[in-house]
Amino acid sequence: MNILMITNIDNDEKLEDIWLARAFQEDGHNVAIVDKNYDEKLESIFDIFLKRNTWNSNATIENVSEKYSFTERIIKKDLPRINFDGKYDGSDKSYLVKLFKNGYETIPTIDNLDDLKLLKNTSKYMMKRKESYDGIGQLVLEKEELKSKFNNSYIVQPFMKFKSEVQFYYIKDKLEYVLEFIPSKVPVYPKAIKYEYNSDELELANKFACLNAEYYGIQRIDFIKLEDDTLLLTEIEDISPYLDLNQVDRKTKEKFIIDYKNMVYEYMQNKNVDYNKKSLSNKT
Known about the structure:
The protein has 284 residues and is of the alpha/beta class. The protein has helices at 15-26, 69-77, 94-101, 143-149, 199-209, 250-270, and strands at residues 2-7, 30-35, 48-51, 81-82, 125-129, 139-141, 154-158, 162-171, 174-181, 193-194, 218-226, 231-237.
């Protein structure tokens, strides 16, 4: 099988992509790791396309919402693919507004100032760009500032104090591991700690993971942990989640890699893809 793994080769976190690629190579498959601006001609050669860390680690407010043409092409051509069909963070943060209105355990979120009353009493607000990540472009504002600066490219949430960030890492809807970051990943990225979740927290995370029905890919379900230990959803990262594999123990990492491979093989089998018809002149 010829596998094209699409990432951002300028990111510092490419080691985990190398680990995944090497595991497929050990099974006898050809793997090429390419930048997101690769030559479209490769799409006629490779059997399956794996989206990985395509985000820009040096993004600014000007380019954080940059769209990648390969994503639209691969979906339009209906090529075999992993992590291309997520329904949530792969679009923009508007889904948080819908989840909140439907009673899910999310950070209260609106995108219309007429709904400001739904955020209850708070002295400050977080205004976040719908198309953004890593806190790029977000602002902490008082109500009058918010009213003067808001537009429909943003969501609004109450400014909340919390103890940590907790992240549940899934392959499809199967939990692999859970990490906690104290106090927060922004602005300083602290060392991850293995998180000992309870049954209620697992049920909550599973509820969000299962929203991506029939999804083939990795999901990271991210929460903040409030001072009373309540978890509230911050995002369903289903586009190209960083995995923090360098911060888990060897057994957990190896199990994740095996499960990821098996998910790809299951996908190819279910799609009835005959990947023996294609060949590469040189193993990559």
